[in-house]
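Suppose a colleague, Dr. K., hands you the sequence of a protein chain of 240 amino acids and asks what its three-dimensional shape might be. Before reaching for any lab equipment, you can write down a predicted structure in token form. Begin with the sequence itself:
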Amino acid sequence: MDNKFFDRLYKGYSAESFITGQLFENGFEAFRLPADFGIDLVVTNQFKNLHSQKKYDNFFPFGFQVKSRYLRQSDSLQGPNGRNEYQFYFLLKNDEIRILKEFSNSAYAFVFMIPPGFSMKNIYAFCIHSNEIDNMIKHKFFIENSDGYKLNVCFRGLPQQSRESLIDEMLDKELIDEDGASFLKKKLPETFQRNWNASEGFYLYRKSSSNNSTDNLVIKSIISGFDFSKFPSFPKIRYS
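The predicted structure, expressed as tokens, is then:
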């Protein structure tokens, strides 16, 4: 038995289950196809047809191709303002893209989990509708490789402060003495969220339009976490 294969398979199922749960919560039915046909989930609106004035008939059936990543603690970098930052990517196959473009009622659902793993506070999803695929390629966010395309992502968490930096700051300002510092070292977690008016951030990297081969990828904030209460509407992506 290939344990690595089944580990990836089951983690992929967990990401699909997250999307399925979001859809059911908002009154839609979602079904996982028994084989990989380029669409992982098919969504219908039978409940809406029977019990809601919002039927959205032209949008259904709808298909999702779900891409997932489980991030590790070692994937974390120290971003600006004490934010934990994760840089990762998704691989998109040419056949997937072709099928999504042919099926106009479809989208990619990109799901990722930050450590320690699957829980509602550690799982995130953003979506890109199939009608944006050509624009993503044109604006070089989908970066072509030998088998399809690569989508580079950066996620920045909420600002964090370490226990040591807070204690040092309080000692410098003479708010505590050494006994107080010793007490806080035992009681405070290693890191904790700063009380700032801030939000988590999603960023995509695009290939530089410069001819200078030494240029790095350019980071842009053009997406956000998908609000499934708005489904089947998708926000228009602004590329500039």
